[in-house]
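Lab meeting, item 3. Inverse folding demo.
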C-alpha cells in the first residue's frame, strides 16, 4: 500500500491536534534546550574570538633598572631582537614611562616621583602568546633588568571562567535535550495507544509497516522542527542584544571582542535546526520501534 502525501499530512495533523498539550510541551522543551545549546555555541565562538584578540594583544614588558648602563640596555635590546620567540619590541625611555605613570598613579604618588626613579622598558610582542612565559624566564634576573611582566594570569583566569560557563550551559542543555526526547517519545506513545485499534484494522487490510509508521515519524519531526525554529529565533535575538551592547568605540571591551558575523550566527542556527529535527525524528522512531508492533 503506497504512502500518499495527503494521508501523511492529514494523519500527522490529527495526531498533533489530538495530543496538543503534550505537543506544546514537547515543542517548548525542545525550544528551551536548543536555545541553551545555541547560546553555548554563541558563547564558545565569541569567547574564541575574544581569546584570539587577547592573545594578539599580549605584551611582555622588560623593565630596566633606573640606573641601567648603556651597555646593559644594548645587550638586552640585542637579545630581544635575536630571540625567535619575540615578534618585535619597542623601547620606551624613562621620560615616556614617567608621563605614562602620571595616568596610572594617584596625584600624591606621582608628585613624589622623579624621572630618574622611573625605569625604562622594552615592550615586546611574543611570536605566540604562550611564548610570553619564555621571555619572562629568559630575561628575569639579567644584568640591568628590574623585572619582567606579562598578563598571563589574567588570560588564564578569563579562559577558566569562560570554560566553566560553557560547560555549565552544555550540561544543562544536554539534560533538557534528553528531557525533550523523552517527552516526544511519550507523546508518540500516547498517539499509538489512542489509535491501536485503528492500527490493527489497517494491518488486517494490508497496510505496510511504513504506511503506518510514517505519520508518527512525521509528528516527531514536526515537533522537533518547531522547537528548533523557536530556539533559532531566540539565538538570533541573543546575538542582536550582545551586538547592541558591544560598543565599536571601545574595541577592548569584552562584548565588542565577542561580536560574531551574521554568517556565524546563521551557521549556529542551522546546527540547532538540524539537531531539533534529529531529536524529534529519532525519538519518534524509537517510540514506534518500542511500542508499535509493526
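The presenter then showed the designed sequence:
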Amino acid at each position: 500500500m503506497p504512502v500518499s502525501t495527503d494521508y501523511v499530512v492529514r494523519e500527522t495533523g490529527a495526531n498533533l491536534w489530538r495530543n496538543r498539550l503534550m505537543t506544546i510541551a514537547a515543542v517548548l522543551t525542545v525550544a528551551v534546550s536548543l536555545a541553551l545549546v545555541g547560546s553555548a555555541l554563541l558563547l564558545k565562538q565569541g569567547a574564541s574570538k575574544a581569546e584570539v584578540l587577547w592573545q594578539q594583544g599580549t605584551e611582555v614588558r622588560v623593565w630596566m633598572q633606573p640606573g641601567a648602563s648603556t651597555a646593559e640596555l644594548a645587550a638586552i635590546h640585542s637579545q630581544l631582537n635575536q630571540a625567535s620567540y619575540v615578534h618585535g619590541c619597542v623601547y620606551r625611555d624613562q621620560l615616556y614611562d614617567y608621563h605614562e605613570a602620571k595616568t596610572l598613579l594617584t596625584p600624591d604618588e606621582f608628585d613624589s616621583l622623579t624621572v630618574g626613579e622611573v625605569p625604562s622598558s622594552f615592550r615586546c610582542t611574543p611570536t605566540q602568546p604562550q611564548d610570553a612565559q619564555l621571555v619572562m624566564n629568559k630575561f628575569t634576573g639579567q644584568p640591568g633588568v628590574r623585572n619582567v611582566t606579562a598578563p598571563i594570569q589574567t588570560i588564564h583566569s578569563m579562559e577558566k571562567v569562560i570554560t566553566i560557563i560553557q560547560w555549565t550551559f552544555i550540561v544543562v542543555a544536554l539534560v533538557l535535550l534528553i528531557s525533550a526526547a523523552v517527552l516526544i517519545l511519550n507523546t508518540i506513545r500516547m498517539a499509538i495507544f489512542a489509535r491501536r485499534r485503528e492500527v490493527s484494522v489497517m494491518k488486517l487490510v494490508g497496510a505496510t509497516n511504513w504506511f503506518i509508521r510514517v505519520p508518527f515519524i512525521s509528528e516527531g519531526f514536526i515537533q522537533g522542527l518547531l522547537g528548533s525554529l523557536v530556539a533559532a529565533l531566540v539565538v538570533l535575538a541573543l546575538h542582536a542584544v550582545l551586538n547592541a551592547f558591544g560598543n565599536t568605540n571601545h574595541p577592548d571591551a569584552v562584548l565588542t571582542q565577542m561580536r560574531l558575523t551574521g554568517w556565524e550566527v546563521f551557521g549556529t542556527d542551522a546546527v540547532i535546526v538540524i539537531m531539533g529535527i534529529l531529536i524529534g525524528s529519532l525519538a519518534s522512531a524509537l517510540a514506534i520501534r518500542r511500542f508499535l508492533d509493526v
